[in-house]
Amino acid sequence: MKKLSILIITVLMFTVGCTPTRTTIFYWGNYSSALYKYKKTPDESTRAAYKSALKEILDNAKKKFKKIPPGVHAEYGYVLAQEGDIVGGQEYFGKELQLYPESKEFVAKLQQEISRGNQQ
Amino acid sequence: MKKYITIGSLCILMMSCAPMIKKQEFAPKMYVEHPVTILVLPPINKSTAADAKEYYTTTVAEPLTNSGYYVYPLEVVNDILKQEGLFETESYAHIPPQKFKDFFNADAVLYVTILQWNTSYYVTGGNVSVKVACELKSTKTGEVLWFYDDVVVVNTSGDSGGNGGLAGFLIQAATTAIKTATQDYVPLAKEVNQKIFLAMPYGKYHPQFNKDGQMEVVKKGNVKSPTSRPVKSTGSKSTTKAK
Question: Residue A22 and residue B194: Cβ atoms within 8 Å?
Answer without folding.
Answer: yes
